[in-house]
Amino acid sequence: GQNIDQPTEMTATEGAIVQINCTYQTSGFNGLFWYQQHAGEAPTFLSYNVLDGLEEKGRFSSFLSRSKGYSYLLLKELQMKDSASYLCAVRPGGNTPLVFGKGTRLSVIA
Amino acid sequence: DAGVTQSPTHLIKTRGQQVTLRCSPKSGHDTVSWYQQALGQGPQFIFQYYEEEERQRGNFPDRFSGHQFPNYSSELNVNALLLGDSALYLCASSYRVGYTFGSGTRLTVV
After folding, report:
1. Are the C-beta atoms of residues A27 and A92 closer than 8 Å to each other?
2. Which of A1, A51, B23, B62 has the most Cβ atoms closer than 10 angstroms to its Cβ?
3. DSSP annotation of A43
4. Using one digit for the tens of pLDDT, what is the confidence trace for B50-70?
5. Residue B91 near chain A (CB below 8 Å)
6. Cβ contact (<8 Å) for A97 and B100?
C-alpha cells in the first residue's frame, strides 16, 4: 500500500520560519512533490525532489532523504498569504499518478 | 500558454443523477489524471488516461468512468450520484515529470 503522513495543522507567526514534515511508505519512489493549495482552489506546484538533499527556491526549500522516507518543506519569512494547505505527494513509478498526503493546514498569525 | 482548463466550475446535482466533468490539458501534455478531493482531505486518485485509454485506476467504483479524446482532452462521468460524491474534482495533466492542476469542479450532490 501507499501511505503518506504529514501533520494536520500548524500555526506560525508572520516573519518566522516553519518546517512541514512528510514521511512516506510507497511501493516505489520516483519523486516527491510539494504543492500549495488555498481553500477552494487548485494545488499549485512548489517543489520537486528526486535525489537526496535540499532544493531551494526563494523563500521555499524542500529536503529529501530517500533512505528515511522523509521530506520537509521549509518556508522562510512567512507572510499572511502563506496561510494555506500544503500537500506532500509521491510518485511511486515512472508514469504513475501522484499519491497525496492529507495536507497540512498552515495558519500564519500576526 | 493556457494551463489546464476544467468545466464547469460549480455544479449541483440530485442523488441518482449523472454528471459529466470536462478537462482540457495544458498544451504539450498528453496524460490526464482525475482526482477527488473531499473537504479537508488530500486529493484521491480516480484514474489516469494516456493515448485514449485508461491506464491506471484508483479505488473507485465503476460508477466513475472516463474518456480521453484524440486532442488529449478528457471527461469524467459519474453515474447514480451519492451524497458522498460531493467534492472538488481536480484534473491534472502531465508530460513526463511535471503535473499541472486545473482549478477544479466543485460538485455538490443534494
Report:
1. yes
2. B23
3. -
4. 999 999 999 999 999 999 999
5. no
6. no
